[in-house]
Design a protein that fits this description.
- There is one protein chain.
- By secondary structure, the protein is an alpha/beta fold.
- The chain has a domain of 256 residues: Spore Coat Polysaccharide Biosynthesis Protein SpsA, Chain A (Alpha-Beta Complex).
- It is built from 16 helices and 17 strands.
- The strands form five sheets. It has an eight-stranded mixed sheet, sandwiched between helices. It has a three-stranded antiparallel sheet with strand order 2-1-3, covered by helices on one side.
- Strand 6, helix 7 and strand 7 form a beta-alpha-beta unit.
- Helix 9 packs antiparallel against helix 14 and helix 12 packs antiparallel against helix 13.
């Protein structure tokens, strides 16, 4: 690799390892000496340890007696379990120098996350063309002169060294200043659709025995089907059907003091949400001074979460928690906190009508890479205007539906009804016939989007499916995408999930909540896995 900045993370939901010392032109990495330690001969170590085993216990036993010696062992074991448990829980969140460590062995940890069936399909096709099936070339669309043009993932380790479960993998990011310079000066062209407006209805009426909500306007099946007929100008349902503007007497309402700020122009925003007091706010790390000045971070919370934060002195009148600007939501439209979370996730273009790019991350995640670098890597470098990671294991909607049922993610009858409906519309199990589409199932906790009419339409129609059917947006993603792609020349960058795990991490926290202002342990409530 020449140029660029290589970010690595090791371990399950591991911490970021930034390799910043890439030697320009040489394509070499500076290795940490900490990985060069030589292991001792195991036979010598074994014999020495056995001698100690014979001598030490007998000395302790002679002076303490059987009962005291047993109690001492129990106490030592309890202390060991406590120390190891604390280390496992806090090793990511409490390691101040985690971003400065350099290493190469962790580059192999991504393998089990990326070798899913869809990747094997592509690998077989590459081998049939004479390519190397053991190496995955990173996709670069900016030509051979791009600093990351020659970046490839390392080959997989031997089978006996592979680790089980999803892992992060290396990602080649440009330095922040170069990423900023890569930002397009003008919006991307929206294919076919140029003017998109939204249904306004102060008295929506449910006319069909299907799902939907007052907030979504109860679009009929005919209106739903018409919304997939892409034209130059369109009017579609997209939530917020009441009121003069989103957030003002529409349901999902904002404070008056926030409404004006949401109308302002921004090149880029980062957004997240916590509803039902379910997650803890995670502060972004490795954010450049340029991003801190120019990229606002918005966190949407409901009144329940606000009350908890105020009671713990985590939120005051400034409505700021670190980098996050807190937006309190009133009159949430759904009783299900997960479904309420889909409103800002999929309808950011309605809430922020004057922004160019947005990065959405679920509330359980911590951002650990600069927003400019993420946008350059997954949108600008790929000539894409929408990016989402594919699921690390499943790529078929029918398999995803069964997994949701087995995990109790939603009631089985509703999942079956949604999948059966899609089957009548032509949904089939994933196969090689869909290539170059490599997955029908996203890992939807991160959305990277340029706000242009076609991407706004996509998230509107995706939201309408979530409003009509189940809140499991993985089930409806592929159907909406395919219907739009059948009408216009448009695509979505579905990147590897191990790459997503490189720039967001799901922080492990202990089974208690902490008042970060007073540093006092609060009541037991949740744990995030």
């Amino acid at each position: 690799m020449t140029g660029g900045s290589l970010g690595l993370r090791a371990g399950s939901y591991g911490s970021l390892l930034n390799i910043k010392n890439v030697i320009a032109g040489g394509g070499r990495l500076l290795h940490s000496k900490s990985f060069g330690s030589v292991r001792k001969n195991p036979i010598i170590m074994l014999s020495g340890s056995r001698e100690k085993e014979r001598s030490l216990p007998s000395i302790w036993y002679r002076y303490l007696g059987r009962r005291k010696f047993s109690m001492l062992l129990l106490v030592a074991f309890a202390v060991l379990v406590f120390v190891l448990g604390s280390f496992v829980v806090n090793k990511e969140s409490n390691s101040p120098n985690v971003d400065q460590r350099i290493g190469t062995m962790s580059m192999a940890h991504y393998i089990n996350a990326t070798r899913n069936e869809a990747s094997r399909i592509l690998g077989r096709r590459n081998r049939q063309k004479g390519g190397d099936g053991n190496r995955f070339q990173a996709s670069v669309s900016k030509g051979a002169n791009h600093p990351c043009a020659n970046f490839t993932f390392p080959p997989p380790p031997p089978p006996h060294l592979r680790r089980i479960g999803p892992r992060p993998c290396p990602v080649c990011y440009l330095p922040v200043d170069q990423a900023i310079a890569s930002m397009p000066s003008s919006p991307s062209e929206s294919p076919v659709l140029h003017n998109l407006t939204y249904v306004h209805d102060e008295n929506p009426i449910k006319t069909e025995p299907h799902g939907g909500s007052d907030f979504g306007g109860y679009p009929s099946l005919k209106q739903r089907n018409d919304s997939f007929d892409i034209k130059e100008s369109m009017v579609v349902h997209c939530g917020f059907v009441k009121g003069s503007k989103p957030g003002h007497q529409t349901g999902f309402d904002f404070d008056e003091s926030d409404l004006a700020g949401l109308q302002q122009f921004h090149e880029i925003i980062v957004a997240s949400a916590i509803f039902g007091n379910y997650d803890l706010i995670q502060q972004p790390r490795n954010i450049s001074e340029e991003a801190k000045r120019n990229v606002p971070f918005y966190m949407f919370i409901d009144e329940e979460t606000e009350a908890y934060m105020k009671n713990r002195s985590m939120l005051d009148s400034s409505k700021r928690v670190g980098l996050w600007r807190i937006i309190v939501i009133h009159n949430v439209p759904y009783s299900d906190a997960r479904r309420n979370g889909k409103v800002p996730k999929l309808l950011l273009h309605r809430i922020f009508p004057n922004i160019r790019y947005s990065i959405w991350i679920d509330g359980k995640l911590q951002l650990v890479v600069d927003p400019y670098q993420i946008l350059e890597r997954f949108l600008w470098r790929q000539n894409a205007n929408f990016a989402i990671s594919r699921h690390y294991r499943r790529f078929d909607v029918f398999v995803e539906a069964e997994a949701n049922k087995a995990a109790g993610k939603y009631d089985n009858s509703s999942i079956d009804a949604q999948v059966d409906f899609y089957r009548t519309e032509g949904l089939t199990p994933y196969s090689e016939a869909k290539l170059p589409i490599i997955s029908d199932v996203p890992e939807g906790c991160v959305l990277i989007k340029e706000h242009i009419p076609i991407t706004n339409l996509f998230t509107c129609l995706w939201f309408n499916e979530v409003d009509r059917f189940t809140s499991r947006d993985q089930l409806s993603f592929g159907m909406v995408r395919d219907k739009i792609m059948a009408k216009v020349d448009w695509h979505i960058n579905m990147f590897l999930d191990c790459e997503r795990r490189n720039f967001v991490i799901q922080v492990h926290i202990p089974y208690w909540r902490i008042n970060f202002k007073g540093l006092k342990i609060q009541s037991l409530k949740y744990i995030i896995f």
